[in-house]
Amino acid sequence: MNRNLKRKNIWSTISQQKYLIMMCLPFVIWVIVFAYVPLWGWTMAFQDYRPGLPFSQQEWVGFKYFIELFQDNYFYLVLRNTLAMSLLGLAFGFTLPIVLALLLNEIKNDLFKRTVQTVSYLPHFVSWVVVASLVTEMLSGSGTVNNILLALGIIDKPIQFMAQPQYFWWIVTGADVWKEIGWNSIIFLAAISSINPELYEAATVDGAGRFTKMLHITLPGIMPTVMVILVMTIGNLVNIGFEKQMLLRNPLVKEYADVIDLYILDFGIGGARYALGTAAGMFKSVVSVILLFIANTFSKRFADIRVV
Length: 308
What we know:
By secondary structure, the protein is mostly helical. The chain has 14 helices and two strands; from the N terminus they run H-H-E-E-H-H-H-H-H-H-H-H-H-H-H-H. Helix content is 71%, strand content 1%.
């Protein structure tokens, strides 16, 4: 009886929500086609893959390319670069949009607030090709940054920023923050707008200042959103892409610029070593899943918020 009752409840729920299910169906199909079906390609990591040969004629080699991957010293170098730039992005690219959203929320002049929002959003729509050109030009020996530092007397001669490996991680992080800070702050501004205004009114009556209200009302109010975004960001620590690194790198900083995605592009696709590239991609995906579950576990334990 209980089983039949549950079955009736399930079909009743489906009947009531059939229009929502129909609306979601195209997106579910899209995810299956573009996210799950391509996982079949992971079989290449266990084959001595030869393009053009049928699947049945490919030679299976087990974990040969995984062993080769973990014995490659250059792979650990690109892993170091990936984690370093990801952690810098987490430290600045995640926290600064929250700060910007909090500050924008305190601006009472609507015209000035909209102007700041527009100016901070616009770089998001500029391609990385243009951003890389701007950054390279500004940091060149005769660029704006060196001219300002020389005029202020901070340096005696121009610094070749783009030729110094130790600056590269910070240059990439700074460029990424400048490009995305306004766009990333939108979700936090939306979360702030959902906070009950009566809480601020009650705090004002109690004599709380702006900073106190920000600390005890605004931040706790957006904390669920912050934790969800944090968990998702940690889950994507090794998925930082390759566009900005590829466009900003040069032979002098290559050892600090190459990341896992560039390793896959250069050695896997560029070198026609598809099995090795697939193995590196699988490693990245597995690490991402592990980081996601670790971050989700800590979020549940310390903030009582779960993402998955």
